[in-house]
Amino acid sequence: MKNKRFFLAIDQGTTSTRSIIFNEKFKVIANERIQNKEFYPEVGWVEQDPNEILQAAINSIKRSVNKINVSFSEINCIGITNQRESIVCWDSITGKSLYNSISWQCLRGDTLCQKIKGTDFENYVNTVTGLKIDPYFSSTKISWILKNSSDVKNALNNDRLKVGTIDSWLMFNLLNNNPHLTDLSNASRTGLLNTKTLNWDKKILSYFDIPIEILPKIVPSNYNFGTTNKEIFDFEIPVTAVLGDQHASLYGHSSNSENEIKCTYGTGAFILLNTLNKRYSYQNDFLSTIAWQKDKEIFYALEGSIFSAGSIIEWLKNIGIIKNIQNMQFQDFSPKNNENLFFIPALNGLGAPFWNSKIKASIEGVNFASSSESIIKAGLESVAFSTKAVMDSISNKTKINFKTLKVDGGLTNNNFLMQFQADLLGIPILVSKNSEITSLGVAKLASEKIMKKSEFDNNYKKYIPNKKNLKLLRNKYKIWMDKVRNNISIMEE
Predict the structure, then answer these.
(1) Do 195 and 323 fall within a single domain?
(2) pLDDT tens digits for 103-142?
(3) What is the rounded distance in angstroms from the CA atom of residue 294 to the CA atom of residue 189?
């Protein structure tokens, strides 16, 4: 395998940390995955161990390289893609984390969010960041930890505190000279970035009492971030791309054509519309965000973030309703057999287009005829309903009638969900045959920093909508929407 090109992607997700090696034709030749643990210290709180994440990144890289018997010197470059919004605090001298990583799923910032809502400051944040005031984003997590962790406060008082998203934490520990960097895509998800000036916003930082010195320097998504520490990997490999995971997925799917939209069905489900160089102003139901910065060119996106998708399946497994993953491969796609059972997927509140952190998950319409199968189906249907709610909202605002939806992620292996989604939307669903589209996206961007752009084919499996089910499904969707709105109204009373 000498004199060939190899590209490595670190894919640090919510449930696992993986390292994937691609050859020069961007075919996966090695894939090593290590599970991540999650902790729930209080109701609504979600944390992870940043040291475990770091070690998983190191171990998965070493295993993937050893698996195909290449040396680190043969890896041309590395791209890093990561779960977004989650934060880490660490000591700049020792490099040790000072608190568990606060997950994007964590709701501990909700009290502060409720205080801000309805104020002029909320309007300001919406306008300059393109985001909501919601505990999903990093800003309230950072504000909380600065006030509530004695170790973090001590590090701050001694000018030793660094704070960043997962990408920053990994780079600080894996690269020479411990850089404190983040790319524009990750910065745009913190709720602290002014997407007009492309800098940390001083007014927002002042409100949350966050010193700018503890935050990373913002650089383009394709950038010479540094080289890996030789003591860790035996060779100094350049890191030339960093992207938030959903942005990397969009880059992997992207043909840079107008009105291209994708959905990744992971722990949550994330729908992104590539708006190219057009920046939309703040939208109430979904997000206006930065897709990536490539050299000096900025690309934008609209995003609908659905908080619960794969996490629904994990929860159903944890409580014993799903005994075997094969239980989810239903042969009967008819919605008639499940028309009275509804799942409200608010395991950690609802994201787009509802944006309500107080609503709780529920299963409605249960009776003596209900079975584990009908509950699983209702859970999967709720993912499809949530996706339609976001796509309808984006379509209504942009006046775009979407012709197809490109998809990736673990749940795309479920034929029932994919066919149900196609039937409900009334458009073909294109499932990427490359299951590593997120890693592919960041590996492609990394490779383009050091060589000429190369073309590759990303093939798709197509699910064609069954028009016979359309009326029945749209009626069921309307009932589901009414139930969601009713539950939100009850919580707000």
Answers:
(1) no
(2) 998 999 999 999 999 999 999 999 999 998 989 899 999 9
(3) 17
Spatial CB neighbours of 455, under 8 Å, sequence gap ≥ 6? none
Token code pair at residue 455: 């073309």
- Of residues 252, 279, 52, 63, the one with CA closest to residue 166: 52
The string of pLDDT tens digits covering residues 40-77 is: 999 889 999 999 999 999 999 999 988 888 888 888 99
pTM: 0.86
pLDDT digits (tens, 9 = 90+) for 140-157: 999 999 999 999 999 999
Residues paired with 105 in a beta bridge: none
Residue 309's CB is within 10 A of a number of other CB atoms, namely 28
> 443 lies in a domain?
no
Helix (H, G, I), strand (E, B) or coil at 329: coil
CATH classification of the domain holding 69: 3.30.420.40
Please tell me the total count of domains within the chain: 2
Helix (H, G, I), strand (E, B) or coil at 34: strand
Q: How far apart are the first and last CA of the chain?
A: 66
Q: Which residues, at least 6 apart from 274, have a Cβ–Cβ distance to it below 8 Å?
A: 250, 254, 256, 260, 261, 291, 299, 301
> Which of 82, 73, 27, 55 is closest to 442 using CA atoms?
82
How many residues are there in the chain? 493
* Closest alpha carbon to 193 in 99, 83, 97, 288: 288
Residue 347 is part of which domain span? Answer: 306-427+465-492
Sole residue written with tokens 């104020």: 119
Residue-wise burial string across 377-416, b where 16 or more C-beta atoms lie within 10 A, e elsewhere: bbbbbbbbbbbbbbbbbbeeebebebebbbbbbebbebbb
Return the structure tokens found at 175.
């690269």
Whether 42 and 151 map to the same domain: the answer is: yes
Residue 364 and residue 243 share a domain: no
User: Is 137 found in the same domain as 218?
Assistant: yes
Say whether both 483 and 366 belong to one domain. Answer: yes
Neighbour tally for 336: CB within 10 Å: 9
Give the torsion through C-alpha atoms of 305, 311, 313, 316, to 10 deg. Answer: -130
> For strand 217-219 and strand 181-183, is the pairing parallel, antiparallel, or unpaired?
parallel
Q: What is the sign of the dihedral through the CA atoms of 191, 184, 88 and 8? A: positive
The reply to whether 126 and 57 lie within a common domain is yes
With a CB cutoff of 8 Å and minimum separation 6, the contacts of 194 are 128, 129, 200, 201, 204
Same domain, 349 and 242: no
Q: Are residues 241 and 317 in the same domain?
A: no
CA 348 centroid distance within chain: 15
